[in-house]
Amino acid sequence: MSVATTRRQFIAMCGFGAAAFVAAPLIRMPEAQAGAPRVFTGLVDGTGAGGFDVVAYFTQGGPVEGSTDFTAEHDGAQWRFASAANRDLFVANPAKYAPQYGGHCAYAAAKGYVAKGVPEAWTVHDDKLYLNFSKSVRTLWLQDVPGNIAAGDKNWPTLLA
Hints:
By secondary structure, the chain is of the alpha+beta class. It contains 8 helices and 6 strands; from the N terminus they run H-H-E-H-E-E-H-H-H-E-E-E-H-H. The chain has a two-stranded antiparallel sheet with strand order 1-4. The chain has helices at 3-14, 17-22, 56-59, 84-92, 94-97, 106-111, 135-142, 145-159, and strands at 27-28, 67-74, 77-81, 114-115, 118-125, 128-132.
């Protein structure tokens, strides 16, 4: 199966339709990602989770925009927080709060691809944060969260190698 065929199947599976195929550079094959940063920072340059406070998903139940007044560096990215308390929680245990797969789309990782993750399409499962490409992709992700996590965990180590 060709790379183009596989990419078209992924796009169709995600429900992006023909218009998204034009935006296919947002969805890259693993071999195109060699040397890419582990943390997705494409929404706000150099900033993890699009500048949103990743601790807030756990403490406030959803996305809260972070502030440039409360930041921390971790895994090659800057993380923003809504408060000093949230920043301090993150600094004390970044593995607990940082999104899985570096904030890349968890559904894409499960399918063997790398795509951006957005703060609005999120899930906390088993005390871990997962971001998806969009809310519609999140709907697909939610159909089999344990299976998608198992596949994503298996694929992730090689996706950015």
